[in-house]
Design goal:
transmembrane; cadmium ion transmembrane transporter activity; symport; Amino acid/polyamine transporter I; 20 helices; membrane; Iron transporter
């Protein structure tokens, strides 16, 4: 059984890690809030978020495969500098705040399991472990660790079965949308959308696919030299055809990987809302602001087993998401300033790249002790992500339809329809989110 799981995980690419990392402690807190406050009423959102999320991440992955560079480099090469700098101004603080909220959530939940040890100690310990893994593990090992951490998300699928949901009501809530036309409910829908379709995932997915295809192309160059040594004569056009054929195969494999990753992400969202919507909402527990509150509230309602599974899931997803958050930030900064470096290089070969990761994680840790609470961090992160998402999605659509960049691998009709729908929905959400802040 273990060998089959190992073989399956090895075959998967960046898509599964990207999708799983979206369900970080901050995301789990948002989904828990939705379940506690509105019961099963927001379950139907998964029907909307899955195809939109999958379409955008597939576009990002395809851009990475074709250009073999990160999204920031593509922006530098094809857009005015002010677009890039505007994106950095909004993205960098949002990612650091997200990291801080996740570290705080992990520490607080660990403190619930081991009350004798203060949450700060756990937060510092987790930060140290994360930095050690990111800096000292070889890239292939690091990615394998992230893939195995994806299995911790299965804990959230188990939890609802302790809460004994009414499955007929679950099916109804999933396939028959419930919309309450008030500011609070629409605000929750906006929060779910913003948490699920996050800009940092765009940069991570593009960079990881670019890293993977570079290794494939290096192997192609080796094969090309071997062909030349063996005396076989291939024209430049024939080599180009072979390369395009390989790219087509890689895109097919990538699409499956991305779809599986986004499906996993949305399943966890669904089961988290289901668990809290069944256990907490039915018991009159309507206000959940943090993941530790959600975990603590589950214990008397659904039993100690569900509480422990939920808590362990928070810690596992934190270990998965923070490397993705800090890694995506490092790719953004390094590519912006032309620093050579990526996760495939050792620390001594890419000191500026790893310095960004170290600084971002430490800033995230310190954020919790300079007066910014995890709840405030979530709010600020949602606003910053909400503002940047529509802009970046519009740019993604432009890049992915540009034949000068993408060649014959531009968007198909379905990708454009879903991409445009995502842009419009995120734009409306951003406007409504800003409206909420000024009218609340």
């Amino acid at each position: 059984m273990f060998k089959k799981v190992k073989k399956f995980l090895k075959a998967l690419g960046p898509g599964i890690v990207t999708g799983a990392s979206d369900d970080d402690p901050s995301g789990i807190a948002t989904y828990s809030q939705a379940g506690a406050k509105y019961g099963l009423a927001t379950l139907w959102t998964v029907i909307i978020t899955f195809p939109l999320m999958a379409a955008i991440q597939e576009i990002c992955a395809r851009i990475g495969l074709i250009t073999t560079v990160g999204l920031t480099t593509t922006l530098k090469n094809h857009y005015p500098k002010w677009v890039l700098y505007l994106m950095i101004i909004f993205s960098v603080p949002a990612i650091v705040l997200n990291i801080g909220a996740d570290i705080a959530g992990m520490g607080a939940v660990a403190h619930l399991i081991f009350p004798g040890i203060h949450a700060i100690i756990f937060s510092v310990l987790f930060t140290g472990i994360l930095l050690f893994f990111i800096i000292y593990l070889p890239y292939s090992t690091f990615v394998s660790v992230l893939k195995y951490l994806c299995l911790t998300l299965m804990l959230y699928i188990i939890v609802p079965f302790f809460t004994k949901p009414d499955w007929a009501a679950v099916m109804k809530a999933t396939f028959i949308p419930t919309i309450k036309w008030n500011k609070e409910f629409i605000g929750m829908l906006v929060a779910i959308l913003g948490t699920t379709i996050s800009p940092y995932l765009f940069f991570w997915q593009t960079a990881m696919e670019a890293e993977d295809v570079k290794s494939v192309k290096r192997q192609m160059m080796v094969n090309k030299r071997l062909v030349s040594i063996n005396g076989e004569k291939l024209t430049g056009e024939e080599h180009k055809k072979k390369e395009n054929k390989l790219l087509g195969l890689l895109i097919s494999k990538m699409s499956l990987d991305v779809n599986l990753g986004m499906l996993l992400s949305n399943m966890i969202m669904f089961f988290t809302i289901l668990a809290t919507g069944t256990a907490l909402y039915n018991q009159g527990i309507r206000q959940i602001d943090t993941v530790e509150q959600a975990a603590k509230a589950l214990e008397p309602v659904a039993g100690k087993a569900s509480y422990l599974l939920f808590a362990l899931g928070v810690i596992g997803t934190g270990f998965l998401a923070i490397p993705v958050l800090s890694g995506s930030l490092s790719y953004i900064i390094s590519e912006t300033f032309g620093w050579k470096g990526n996760l495939d290089r050792k620390f001594n070969q890419a000191k500026p790249f790893y310095a960004v990761i170290i600084v971002s994680v430490i800033l995230g840790l310190l954020m919790n002790y300079i007066g910014i609470s995890p709840v405030d961090a979530l709010l600020y992160t949602a606003i910053l992500y909400g503002v940047t998402s529509p802009v970046i999605i519009a740019i993604l659509l432009h890049i992915s339809n540009n034949r000068k960049v993408m060649g014959e691998f531009t968007n198909g009709r379905i990708s454009n329809i879903l991409g445009l729908a995502t842009f419009l929905l995120m734009a409306v959400s951003a406007i409504f989110l800003i409206y909420l802040q000024f009218t609340s």
